[in-house]
Write a structure and sequence with these properties.
CATH topology: Coagulation Factor XIII, Chain A, domain 1
Distance between the termini: 64 Å
Order of helices and strands: HEEEEEEEEE
Largest sheet: 5 strands, mixed
Low-confidence stretches: 1-17
Structural class: mainly beta
Strand content: 15-25%
Shape: globular
Mean pLDDT: 92
Number of strands: 9
Radius of gyration: 18 Å
Number of helices: 1
Number of domains: 1
């Protein structure tokens, strides 16, 4: 019996690890660009999540240990391009929850040295596609291999940190929502003309007690889901 208990515990631990993910591969207009971490800053907790206390720390910008430098390259794209962040090792997003993408223009137009302390704006978000939060398959990002968005055509040109985030809510009811965050370095070309808003600082976009973070999906009729953070920029 002891051996069986150990085996069950090991399988449960393996299943938990397999459900973790990291968005470290860049796609542009459906084409893979480089390899893992070529254009994405590498975090020190690998594919393991961060937990809600990260919302009060600078690590919320790009994840634990993901700092400027480290040989990360900056990729040149055009406003209007479709940008994707793919999960490593052909894994999938295997937790229910929302996905968001934020951008922050490097104040000195050199994203390689930028720490993310400037202004950010949310450019895209995804939550529930149908029904309520009780069914994992009702979340738009569930079992997908990437999060994708289109850079608004009026995005001011320059070098940006582009922050992708998914929040796993399967333990949100225990105040243990899981944060999966990465930042890519992109140079955006285009005519500009837009005024991204609202502008926010990170940390500062969330509180641990926000209803979209401390959320219970494990009821037959969960509360309507409220997306955390600011509204996405409308592109104008």
């Amino acid at each position: 019996m002891k051996s069986l208990s150990l085996l069950v515990g090991a399988l449960a631990a393996a299943s938990s690890v397999e459900a973790h993910y990291i968005f470290n591969i860049l796609f542009v207009n459906g084409k893979k660009i480089g390899g893992e971490y070529t254009y994405v800053r590498k975090n020190s907790n690998s594919y393991n999540p961060a937990f809600p206390d990260i919302v009060e720390k600078n690590d919320l910008r790009c994840n634990v240990g993901a700092k400027p430098g480290g040989g990360v390259k900056t990729y040149e794209v055009n406003a209007g391009d479709k940008i994707g962040f793919k999960v490593f090792n052909n894994e999938l997003i295997e937790h229910p929850g929302p996905g968001m993408i934020y951008m922050s223009k490097a104040p000195n137009n050199d994203v390689s040295t930028y720490d993310g302390s400037g202004d950010w704006f949310k450019v895209w978000e995804t939550g529930l596609c149908k029904g309520n939060a009780a069914s994992d398959g009702n979340w738009c990002s569930y079992n997908k291999d990437r999060l994708e968005f289109t850079i608004p055509p009026k995005t001011p040109p320059g070098e940006y940190l582009v922050r992708v985030e998914h929040i796993g809510l399967h333990e949100g009811h225990k105040s243990k929502a899981q944060f999966y965050i990465e930042c890519a370095q992109l140079k955006v070309n285009g005519p500009g003309g837009g005024s991204p808003s609202p502008l926010v600082k990170i940390p500062g976009i969330y509180q641990q007690a926000d209803p979209g973070i401390r959320y219970n999906k494990w009821t037959s009729n969960p509360a309507p889901y409220v997306m955390p953070g600011p509204k996405p920029w409308d592109g104008n």
